[in-house]
Specification:
Oligomer: heterodimer
CATH superfamily of the largest domain in chain A: Cupredoxins -  blue copper proteins
Shape of chain B: globular
Number of helices of chain A: 8
Distance between the termini of chain A: 45 Å
Low-confidence stretches of chain A: 4-33
Order of helices and strands of chain B: HHHHHHHHHHHHHHHHHEEHHH
Largest sheet of chain B: 2 strands, antiparallel
Largest sheet of chain A: 5 strands, mixed
Strand order of the largest sheet of chain A: 3-2-1-5-8
Distance between the termini of chain B: 24 Å
Strand order of the largest sheet of chain B: 1-2
Radius of gyration of chain A: 27 Å
CATH class of the largest domain in chain A: Mainly Beta
Helix content of chain B: 55-70%
Number of domains of chain A: 3
Mean pLDDT of chain B: 95
């Protein structure tokens, strides 16, 4: 049983026909045909890190299966003498063979298997770790927040919940946190690593092919731990360079009416207390940087697809979408709201 | 046998007062053991209801049965309940009831400490559950990591219930562990040398040593966290120079041995059930005992595998990884010793044996997935995913719940004197076994498909829904299986067939006295000449080994024998304390004290302090009547 399916990752934040799909999946025998693919599947690696782990998994899986089969086999074998009722006779034999059996099957063989597994996994650990002497292609800083991800690039570009990387390159991530412990996990690319207050952890990611690889906070971090997703967007080096240059640029100030009004609404409402937009006076860092908001695929750490309607919901009723989130609802009259949406949609 | 003169004399010496006064003041290990068992089962019902709420919420994507805050409280309390309020007390209950019987003693070494342990367990359980009344149950997970559990992010009383509740409960657990250690080492019947101690008793001994060495780390961590929350200390908060990883180290130095604290006595149960139901002496007694003790030891060297993803140096991870691989070996030794016993024996496929076989199959799955977590890269990939949830439930449900239920079918006839229905037992087993595997096996797949733990919901389109739905259905089937046993238990009390002294022809001493046993356990404390005395010594019949065969009636007073540690030679006659309500009074006083600390009221703390001191004086005040008997 090995997974060959390799479905490229897709954005799957919301909305699809539900019932028939689920019903069908229920009827299909578990695991075999449902397969190992999935936007967060560790068994569907899309980079050299996750691929190493996947290989380790299948080795251990088959060892585990053999051990389990042996145990069940012995149980079934023992039942050949099984009976339904208690009999008064008792066997008090010391069973000398039992000591040899336990020594060989319970000690010698397991020691060999376990030592082999230990040595092999140590090599893999070393291969997956970050080493100072390797010059990475790119150093990205990921700061985790309750409940979103801030991503900072060396050229000054700042994004939220989306990490753009070039394919085929080893990217070094430096992980820190603004509040509690979070854990950075993109199962299709690499093992996870925690963001620990007061320290900087490092890891690397690398994607083989262009695609969108979903990530998720793995350490329990409070009310909205469930909605703390992010996306690694791997692009060809050329595409990445184009994105990278644009991402560091300031937002252009809109000249025409509605969007221009929207900027004023933004700067005069509570938005400006938490968010920054490069090229305007808005420079607060409590919430995600919105300089290139319109270029993002999702909103609210993967909770919503980035559409005008969802953006409106988010502004008007954030607590209804993600109870407990740091963003307060903003009360605007409909003219102001439309203007604000026009402005935010212009931030590409 | 109640007609014999010795039995009458002993009854006059050892019986306890009837009614409420007797209820509040008992120190009889059998009554206390049953209390632990009953109370623990009540908490199993609560923890089970919590698990059903969790699974209902996760049955499909984006359900809103529970809001996020309630969900966090429920899953936190589910963990705390199943570990501290169900598994440990129930295993303690079996230990309390059967250790003195199995070693041929009249009671535990410290009967009043024993009573105190139960009351404190009950009080601390109620203390923690009372948090639901004000809607502020602990909500940062049973692992309670700061800074999430620190005041900045958890300003309510939630976490204070956790810290104070666990500190309070630790008093009970520690006292109980010390009591087991002294009882097992010093109170064994003459002739029960170290290599004749029943394996179940070895399991309780190994567990007790683990508690004594592991629990202080948890208590210390909770004291530090409470100081940080209430008085602004900086142990864990990085702003003041603390380190959040310090909590994780302290917690898991306790938390990993905790797994074995639950598993070792459960393994002991398996080793107690297997020989009787295989109709043969256990194979590899010495192997099993050495394995239990080495698990207890190695279990202290693996805690960092809960922290493989925190960024610790590789060299640290390597040592812990090696220990985590190796800790599988003693468990494997036990599994293969049980299998050898089965193969060499003639297994009787009745309910206790079914639970044991179910235990072996499920525990082995938990064991092999445990080895996967010893491999650092795979741990870092699957850590904090549903795969871990599956793994730990295979270890703890497979490894503890199944043995506990097997033990009910094996031992309830001894405890109540009445048989259970075999038919209901089998129905219960199959529902439990199928329900459990349906509820937990799919979580392996979910973990591999990337579903993290401890999320109150999940988004659509990630391919997780079918497995979650299967798991939820399985949970409800599992619940039906457990309820069937409770019904069976209830019906057996009402109209079960009389069990007789030894319905299964068991090998250990508890089968050599009446069902249920008298207050004094055995009319004559026996002299033991075999590892399976009830099989090998016909002179033990009815708990009255003739004096010429070495039986000790000890009708001279409220006394029992103390023997030497290694070879169980009689050393002294020990006066045992009488029943007393002071342990209950002390517990009430301490509850006031802890409540005062919880609500930060100096007045209530002072009241609790004064009453606690008073209760201690009352307990230890020398009394003439104690010395007379």
């Amino acid at each position: 049983m090995r997974c060959v399916a390799n479905v490229p990752g897709r954005l799957t934040a919301v909305g699809r026909v539900r019932a028939p799909r689920r019903l069908r999946a229920l009827l299909i025998p578990v695991f075999l045909s449902a397969g190992c693919s999935g936007p967060l599947s560790a068994l569907d690696p899309a980079g050299p890190g996750a691929a190493r782990i996947e290989r380790l998994w299948w080795i251990l899986f088959w060892i585990a299966t053999i051990v389990f089969a042996a145990v069940v086999g012995l149980i079934l074998y023992s039942l050949r003498h099984g009976r339904r009722d208690l009999t008064p006779d008792i066997d008090k034999d010391e069973a000398q063979w039992g000591d040899r059996f336990i020594a060989v099957v319970g000690v010698v063989i397991p020691v060999l298997i376990l030592l082999g597994g230990f040595i092999y996994s140590l090599g893999e650990m070393n291969a997956l770790a970050t080493h100072d002497d390797e010059g990475p292609a790119l150093d990205i800083e990921v700061v985790s927040h309750n409940w979103w991800w801030e991503v900072r690039y060396p050229n000054g570009a700042v994004t939220a919940n989306e990490i753009h990387i070039p394919t085929g390159e080893r990217i070094r991530l430096t992980l820190t946190t603004a509040d509690v412990i979070h854990s950075f996990w993109v199962p299709r690319l690499q093992a996870k690593m925690d963001h620990v207050p007061g320290s900087e952890n490092q890891m690397w990611i690398e994607a083989d092919e262009p695609g969108i690889y979903r990530g998720q906070c793995a350490e329990f971090c409070g009310l909205q731990h469930a909605h703390m997703a992010f996306f690694v967007e791997a692009e060809s080096p050329e595409d990445f360079d184009r994105w990278y240059e644009n991402a560091a640029s300031s937002a252009s100030t809109p000249s025409d009416g509605s969007a221009r009004r929207g900027l004023d609404v933004f700067l005069s409402s509570s938005c400006v207390g938490c968010h920054a937009i490069e090229g305007t006076e808005a420079a607060a860092t409590a919430g995600p940087d919105l300089t290139h908001l319109a270029a993002r695929e999702t909103l609210f750490a993967g909770k919503l697809v980035n559409t005008r309607a969802n953006l409106e919901r988010l502004i008007v009723d954030p607590q209804g979408i993600k109870p407990g989130v740091g963003m307060p609802p903003t009360e605007l009259d409909s003219g102001e709201l439309e203007a604000l949406l026009d402005y935010l949609e212009s931030l590409d | 046998m109640a007609t014999s003169l010795v039995a009458e004399q002993l009854h006059a010496i050892w019986h306890e007062r009837p009614g409420l006064a007797g209820w509040a003041s008992t120190v009889d290990h059998k009554r206390i053991g049953k209390r632990y068992l009953h109370t623990g089962m009540l908490f199993l019902v609560l923890g089970g209801l919590e698990s059903m709420l969790i699974r209902a919420q996760l049955a499909d994507a984006q359900l809103e049965i529970l809001d996020p805050e309630t969900y966090n409280q429920i899953f936190t309390m589910h963990g705390i309940t199943m570990m501290f309020l169900f598994a440990m007390p129930v295993l303690s209950g079996f230990g309390n009831y059967f250790v003195p019987l199995m070693i041929g003693a009249r009671d535990m070494a410290f009967p009043r400490l024993n009573a105190f342990g139960y009351w404190v367990f009950l009080a601390s359980g109620i203390f923690m559950y009372s948090s639901f009344l004000i809607g502020q149950a602990p909500n940062a997970g049973w692992f309670n990591y700061p800074p999430l559990a620190d005041r900045d992010f958890a300003p309510g009383l939630n976490i204070d219930y956790y810290t104070l509740g666990l500190i309070f409960m630790g008093i009970s657990t520690t006292g109980g562990a010390i009591n087991f250690i002294v009882t097992i080492l010093k109170m064994r019947a003459p002739g029960m040398t170290l290599n004749r101690i029943p394996i179940f008793v070895w399991g309780e001994l190994a567990m007790s040593f683990q508690i004594v060495f592991a629990l202080p780390a948890l208590t210390l961590a909770n004291v530090m966290l409470e100081l940080e929350r209430r008085f602004g200390f900086h142990f864990f908060g990085e702003a003041g120079g603390g380190d959040p990883l310090l909590w994780q180290h302290l917690f898991w130095i306790f938390g990993h041995p905790e797994v074995y604290i639950i598993a070792l006595p459960a393994f002991g149960i398996v080793s107690a059930i297997l020989p009787t139901w295989s109709r043969r002496r256990i194979v590899g007694y010495t192997w099993i005992v050495v394995a239990e003790l080495s698990t207890a030891l190695i279990g202290f060297g693996v805690w960092v595998h809960h922290m493989f993803a925190t960024g610790l140096p590789q060299i640290t991870l390597s040592f812990i990884s090696l220990a985590s691989f190796m800790v599988a070996i003693p468990s494997g030794v036990q599994v293969f010793a049980w299998l050898a016993t089965l193969v060499a024996g003639r297994p009787v496929l009745r309910t206790p044996m079914l639970y044991v076989l179910g235990f072996i199959a499920t525990f082995v799955i938990g064991g092999v997935t445990g080895v996967m977590f010893a491999a650092i890269p795979l741990d870092q990939q699957l850590h904090d995913s549903m795969f871990v949830v599956a793994h730990l439930h295979y270890v703890l449900v497979g490894g503890a719940l199944f043995p506990i239920f097997g033990a009910l079918y094996h031992w309830l006839p001894k405890m109540t004197g009445r048989m259970l229905s075999e038919r209901l037992g089998k129905i219960s087993f199959w529902l439990t076994f199928i329900g459990f595997n349906l509820s937990m096996f799919p979580l392996h797949i979910l973990g591999l498909l990337g579903q993290p733990r401890r999320t109150y919901t999940y988004q659509e389109g990630l391919g997780w829904e079918p497995y979650n739905l299967i798991s939820t259905i399985g949970t409800f089937i599992l619940a039906a299986g457990l309820l069937t046993t409770f019904y069976n238990w209830y019906m057996s009390l009402r109209r079960g067939e009389p069990a007789g002294n030894d319905p299964w022809r068991g090998e250990t001493l508890e089968w050599a006295t009446t069902s249920p046993p008298p207050h004094h356990n055995f009319d004559h404390i026996p002299t033991v000449r075999s590892r399976e005395p009830a099989w090998d010594q016909p002179d033990l019949a009815d708990g009255a080994q003739p004096i010429e065969q070495g039986g000790h009636p000890l009708t001279e007073g409220h006394i029992t024998l103390s023997t030497s540690v290694l070879d169980a030679r009689p050393q002294a006659v020990v006066h045992m304390p009488h029943s007393t309500p002071w342990p209950l009074y002390l517990t009430i006083a301490m509850t006031i004290l802890f409540t005062g600390m919880l609500v930060s009221s100096i007045l209530i703390v002072a009241l609790g302090g004064v009453t606690t001191t008073g209760a201690l004086f009352g307990w230890f005040w020398p009394r003439r009547e104690t010395q007379e008997t």
